[in-house]
Design a protein that fits this description.
This is Expansin-like EG45 domain-containing protein. By secondary structure, the protein is mainly β. It contains two helices and five strands.
């Protein structure tokens, strides 16, 4: 079985030591620009009540593309496929899928000065 990722091939040094990583769904894949992005993730709901671990937010790193990953999404259109460790940190591990809230973390801020705006 090939375990290479779409982002880093077989370079396991790119996986965070916490094992909090994910594969990006098509909605955030961004033609591969998602590779290496960090997100703060928390479970907000699931079909089964009491699935989410209340107040638990984790930081994950995108290391793969969901449609080509070894662990495929449990349903089409998934935003992220969390590693088993990451999933278990925010929700009951026996759940098949959860709804998450996520925010990109550590995104650089681009400063635009007046000369960069185009103008007259």
């Amino acid at each position: 079985m090939d375990t290479a990722t779409a982002c880093y091939g077989n370079d396991v040094s790119e996986f965070p030591s916490s094992n909090f990583f994910a594969s990006a769904g098509e909605g955030i894949w961004d033609n591969g620009a998602a590779c290496g992005r960090q997100y703060l993730v928390r479970c907000i709901s699931a079909v089964v009540p009491m699935t989410c671990i209340a107040g638990q937010t984790i930081q994950i790193k995108i290391v793969d593309r969901a449609v080509t990953s070894v662990s495929r999404p449990s349903r089409n259109g998934a935003t992220m496929v969390l590693s088993t460790t990451a999933f278990g940190a925010v929700a009951n591990a026996s759940a098949s899928s959860i709804n998450i809230e996520f925010q990109q973390y550590g995104r650089p801020v681009k400063i635009i000065n007046e000369n960069d705006k185009g103008g007259v």
